[in-house]
Design goal:
Helix 6 runs parallel beside helix 20 and helix 9 packs antiparallel against helix 10. The chain folds into 5 domains: about 160 residues, no CATH class; about 100 residues; about 140 residues, no CATH class; about 140 residues; about 140 residues, no CATH class. A hairpin with a 2-residue loop joins strand 4 and strand 5. It is elongated and about 120 Å long. By secondary structure, the protein is an alpha+beta fold. The chain contains 29 helices and 20 strands.
Length: about 750
């Protein structure tokens, strides 16, 4: 073993030294930040995927501790929980993250693992190129082509998309198993392929496609040999056996399977062809290339950049006749992934040619279960990088074939330096202030037996940040993230008025006499299921204004970033607002007569009614045809109206049969504006005065007798269907029957 290590260091010292150095430089200051414990720092400006992977590692830790099942959780989408069969849990990453967290803070462990993944990818390509071309320096260049690609160092950081090193490793072992007739290498290729299913489904599918195409190229020479097919079957058998546990949970529930497979079967917008040839924000080439292609200054191109030095080497490889046969599988893989990556239709420099249909759209219609599974076509870059590295290395090999031995390393290093300059993007990081999670310490001090929370607001990166916060608190939460089975996961949310309203980023307001029954039922449902607190992350709100949800509730905890409300206190939202004394008297009056043709006029010299109270009055007095409140402001009359009266206009009072006038006698007597004065045409039939100054007066149209509203026993008519006719007055005058009904 000691001899092997010495030989490895002697033969491959350049790769062992240069690859980590390139990774560190291309991702700087990620390496330096690993040793900075002062702030929570992530190497990606958009931490969406990081939050998910923190939760995955925490979930795996709970699984290992016997506190959770691997493919199910009820700590999110609580209390019903959800399957995790379709969640993109990268098991190797989660295991290593769990291990690194034993010695490092979570953010430092995540950053260190990110750098190691890039090195792993590069070494996988290095091994493949060195095996096929028998040149360790050219293999170094191939490692940098794939391992330091801008997709990994400047764009994508999700481990299920990031870890692609098993793909070149599978090809390496496959080639050795066939060319050297070694069954153990076929088994190793199957192990690499099978383990990829636990890294990411997208990467696994692209690996299978790559292995299939490369196998076809090998079959041209070896298909007559029975050992060839035995090794292919061994590879497939090992791969199937290892990946079975990953896919079996998906197929056990037909409904969940159908939902998961149909989630991303949708049109894929075209990707701009310029993304292959232009890298925005590159400090060396961006300005020149933007001008060259006449690209919009604010356009961002970075997902699929190939690099011009790579294209130069690819062209040399294609023109070099001795290499053409060996190029065939790599060229085919490159073209397939490059074309499929472009989406449904052609886009060039921002111009959408929707009438030019591309293969991805055709294949998705023919095989939706297969080609419809990639949520975004830029994931094809995973399958594109290995053939790009191989084509570039074949071209570089052809260029150096006649060069002296001491020149070759210098040319490779110069080429690698140029490529690194082309790939380079300044690091955009994300910093999370640790004070934003201080509320968790307060929650732990609460006297609740078990805390269950509702995190707000929801949507986008917000809901996945809540998953990171859950790794710190451990508390079950009502919301969560379910990639492909979100409809089934949110069944509890859909059944609850409060949760469903918040899911649509709307404030949940309790309006007494309108939705208070539904509101209280939803609140009681949450309380029965053990929910205790609502955590409002104010710093995440953005344009979402959920503050009306807590209009009448005092926060139990509040700081610069977060407000925490006790769920039981939310019942206060349904308490009716206090009414002005005179109106409160009227609400309990014995001679209030609602109905069509009946109106209410409230008067106060200086006090207006706040909008919430006015809305409540509109519902409370809904049986009246109209309601007006009058007050004076800056010497002018102002009228507030509720219910139907908002569109009626003030003059409509003259056409009513009954008008109730409500005022406070402790103030001056009501002097109504001419536009709403009605008393000269109505009869004052009843008046009720109270010790607190509240006065209620009832006016009737002259067409009706005041006897109709006097506290006497008037005739009533009861019908068989239960209806009853009241306020009935009749009289016989000679031969005329006079009947009055209010």
């Amino acid at each position: 073993m000691r001899v092997f290590r010495a030989k490895l260091l002697r033969n491959h010292w350049h790769a062992l030294l240069i690859i980590p150095l390139v990774v560190i430089v291309m991702t700087w200051p990620t390496f330096a930040r690993i040793f900075d414990r002062d702030e929570f720092w992530l190497h990606s400006r958009k931490p969406h995927d990081a939050w998910l992977k923190y939760w995955d590692a925490w979930h795996l830790e709970r699984v290992l501790a016997g506190q959770a099942e691997y493919y199910y959780t009820n700590v999110m989408f609580h209390p019903r929980g959800t399957t995790l069969a379709f969640r993109a849990i990268s098991t190797p990453h989660a295991l290593l993250m769990f291990a690194f967290k034993q010695a490092l803070p979570a953010d430092d462990a995540y950053s260190l693992l990110y750098l190691l993944i890039l090195c792993f990818n590069a070494y996988g390509v290095y091994l493949l190129v060195q095996h096929l071309l028998r040149d360790k320096w050219i293999a170094l260049y191939g490692a940098i082509v794939a391992g330091a690609h801008v997709w990994f160092t400047g764009v994508e950081t999700a481990p299920d998309i990031l870890i692609m090193g098993t793909l070149p490793l599978a090809l390496y072992f496959l080639d050795r198993s066939i060319t050297e007739s070694q069954g153990r290498f076929a088994a190793l290729a199957g192990i690499c392929a099978g383990l990829t299913a636990y890294i990411g489904i997208y990467t696994f599918l692209l690996l299978l496609a790559t292995v299939a195409i490369y196998t076809l190229s090998l079959a041209q020479k070896y298909w007559r040999q029975p050992s060839f097919w035995r090794r292919i079957l061994l590879l497939l058998g090992v791969c199937a056996a290892i990946s079975l546990f990953r896919f079996y949970p998906m197929f056990t529930d037909a409904a969940t399977l159908g939902e998961g497979l149909s989630r991303h079967v949708k049109p894929k917008p075209g990707k701009d062809v310029l993304e292959l040839f232009l890298l925005s924000r590159n400090p060396f080439t961006s300005g020149f290339l933007h001008n060259l292609f006449n690209a919009a200054p604010d356009a961002i191109y970075r997902d699929g950049y190939l690099g011009y030095i790579n294209l130069f080497f690819c062209a040399i490889a294609i023109l070099h006749k001795p290499h053409r046969r060996r190029l065939a599988p790599w060229l085919l893989l490159f073209l397939v992934c490059a074309v499929l990556r472009q989406g449904d239709y052609l886009v060039v420099n921002g111009r959408h040619f929707t009438n030019i249909v591309l293969p991805e759209r055709l294949l998705r219609h023919l095989l939706p279960t297969t080609f419809g599974q990639l949520s975004e076509t830029y994931y094809y870059i995973i399958g594109l990088l290995t053939p790009l590295a191989m084509l570039s290395c074949y071209g570089l090999s052809a260029l150096l074939r006649s060069q002296r031995a001491h020149v070759r390393p210098a040319v490779v290093l110069l080429s690698a330096l140029i490529l690194a300059g082309e790939y380079y993007l300044p690091r955009e990081a994300y910093v999370l202030e640790r004070q934003k999670t201080d509320y968790i310490d307060w929650l732990r001090a609460e006297n609740e037996r078990q805390i269950k929370i509702i995190d707000l607001p929801q949507g986008g990166t917000r809901k996945v940040y809540h998953q990171y916060a859950q790794t710190l608190s451990g508390y079950p939460t009502a919301f969560g993230e379910a990639n492909r089975n979100y409809h089934s996961a949110r069944s509890y949310i859909d059944s609850n008025y409060l949760l469903n309203t918040w899911r649509f980023h709307q404030p949940a307001v309790c309006a007494p006499l309108e939705n208070s029954t539904e509101y209280i039922a939803a609140l009681d449902m949450l309380l029965r299921d053990g929910f205790t607190h609502i955590v409002m992350h104010e710093w995440l709100s953005g344009e979402q204004d959920l503050s009306p949800s807590f209009a009448k509730v005092q926060a139990a905890y509040q700081d610069e970033y977060v407000s925490v409300y006790r769920l039981a206190d939310m019942r206060q939202n349904c308490e009716p607002p206090p009414l002005p004394p005179a109106l409160d008297r009227f609400a309990h009056s014995t001679f209030a007569l609602p109905g069509n043709g009946s109106s209410i006029v409230s008067y106060h010299p200086s006090e207006s009614i706040d909008p919430n109270t006015l809305a409540y009055l509109g519902r409370l007095l809904a049986d009246w045809e109209s309601f007006h409140h009058l007050y004076r402001h800056n010497g002018e009359w102002v009228t507030q109206s509720a219910g139907q009266s908002a569109a009626d206009g003030e003059d409509s009072l003259r056409n009513k049969r009954i008008v109730h006038l409500i005022y406070d006698a402790s103030d001056s007597l009501p002097l109504l504006p001419e536009s709403i004065e009605f008393r000269d045409k109505f009869n004052l039939c009843r008046r009720e005065a109270h010790d607190d100054g509240a006065v209620i007066e009832l006016y009737l149209s002259p067409r009706f007798s005041c006897a109709l509203v006097e506290p006497n026993d008037l005739p009533q008519v009861e019908y068989e269907n239960g209806a009853r006719l009241e306020n009935l007055l009749y009289d016989f005058n000679q031969d005329v029957f006079d009947l009055q009904i209010l």
